[in-house]
Amino acid sequence: MFVVYWLEDPAAGPETGLEACSGNAPRRAAARFERFGDSELTQALAFAEDLRKRQAAGEDVSFVSLCSENPHSVGRAGVADPPADYVWTKRRR
User: Fold this and answer.
1) How far is CA 41 from CA 28, 44, 80, in A?
2) What is the per-residue pLDDT for 13?
3) What is the pTM of this model?
4) 34 has which bridge partners?
5) To which H or E segment does residue 31 belong?
6) Selection from 4, 9, 7 nearest residue 62 by Cα
7) Are 52 and 4 contacting, i.e. CB atoms less than 8 angstroms apart?
8) Which superkingdom (predicted)?
9) pLDDT tens per residue across span 39-60
10) Fewer C-beta neighbours within 10 Å, C or N terminus of the chain?
């Protein structure tokens, strides 16, 4: 599974980016996300690239990040011992 996270101010238009806020009271950006299935990496990358293009065009979009989590992982996320029935061997010639 893939998730794209980003921040944006839905009230701000392309003419009011983050740099336009300097010196004023800070605005609160809304955290957003979009989920993609475990076979949709290409779509997730394209979506993140579209967000980065919007950011480059001056829209109030920032902190674009793509995260992944493998639902078919052998063990729990982080450091964990594999299940007792997991068999792995290193083959040497």
Assistant:
1) 30, 5, 26
2) 52
3) 0.63
4) 4
5) strand 30-36
6) 7
7) no
8) Bacteria
9) 999 999 999 999 999 999 999 9
10) C
